[in-house]
């Protein structure tokens, strides 16, 4: 890989870590409420989901992947899961009881495997992630002459940069822990639930949008014709 390619891959990984979405907020929440180790376990699950999508995009056929990523039924399922999880998070009363006791009550033991699986599933149900990595494979692959070793190195740098940036976010988020009273923690969790519900509804609504309207090139073409 050239220096420019490495620099480009690092920048992509860095900006990916700051893309606002359910994974972003869950990572911050997990770090604050359960600690850095728990957040890293969650994040590794998220990254595994990205790796699986990259492998699907690389080894799968473009036409099949285009069909899968725009299948409205998958938007419905993914959105419904996010919506239900958001409702459960919003209605969870465990932190409210901690407010009443004026003490933050956290589980004595953290199930890292469960957090890892949660991170993987939360990322994997977002079909938009598949579309993103498919686009990356098409663009990057053509620029690298579809050379397997170059593509592997390029995406490895992206994932590594992404992980390092997330660890930085986790470390900073953990510093907020001492400022969080039980009341603030309960409010954070409620806000997290609302955000998850919003993301879920957006994903469900996206399934109702006709496929041709999701094609930006066609929309631009229509605008130019109307001028």
Topology diagram in text:
Layout: H1 3-16, H2 22-34, H3 36-59, H4 62-69, H5 72-91, H6 94-101, H7 112-124, H8 127-143, H9 148-175, H10 182-208, H11 216-226
Brief descriptors of the model:
mainly alpha, 11 helices
Question: How would you characterize the overall build of this protein?
Answer:
The structure is a single chain. With 227 residues, this protein is mainly α. The protein has one domain (3-226). The protein has 11 helices and no strands. α1 (3-16) packs across α9, α3 packs parallel to α7 and α5 (72-91) runs antiparallel to α10 (182-208). The longest helix has 28 residues, at 148-175. 28% of the residues are buried. Mean pLDDT is 75; it is low at 98-108 and 214-220.
Summed up, the domain count is: 1
Q: Uncertain spans, ≥5 residues at pLDDT below 50?
A: 98-108, 214-220
> Would you count the extended β strands for me?
0
Q: How much is the radius of gyration in Å?
A: 20 Å
> How does the helix and strand content classify structurally?
mainly alpha
Shape type: globular
């Amino acid at each position: 890989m050239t220096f420019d390619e490495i620099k480009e891959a690092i920048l992509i990984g860095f900006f990916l870590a700051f893309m606002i979405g359910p994974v972003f907020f869950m990572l911050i929440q997990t770090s604050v409420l359960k600690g850095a180790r728990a957040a890293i376990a969650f994040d590794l699950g998220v990254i595994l989901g990205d790796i699986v999508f990259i492998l699907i995009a690389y080894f799968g056929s473009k036409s099949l992947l285009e069909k899968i990523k725009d299948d409205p039924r998958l938007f419905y399922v993914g959105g419904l899961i996010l919506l239900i999880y958001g409702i459960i998070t919003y209605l969870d009363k465990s932190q409210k009881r901690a407010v009443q006791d004026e003490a933050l009550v956290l589980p004595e033991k953290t199930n890292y495997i469960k957090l890892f699986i949660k991170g993987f599933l939360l990322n994997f149900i977002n079909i938009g992630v598949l579309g993103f990595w498919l686009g990356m494979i098409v663009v990057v692959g053509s620029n690298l002459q579809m050379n397997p070793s170059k593509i592997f190195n390029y995406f490895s740098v992206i994932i590594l940069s992404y992980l390092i940036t997330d660890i930085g976010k986790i470390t900073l988020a953990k510093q907020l822990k001492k400022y969080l009273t039980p009341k603030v923690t309960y409010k954070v969790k409620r806000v997290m639930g609302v955000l998850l519900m919003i993301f879920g509804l957006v994903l469900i609504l996206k399934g109702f949008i006709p496929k041709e309207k999701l094609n930006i090139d066609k929309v631009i073409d229509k605008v130019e014709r109307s001028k």
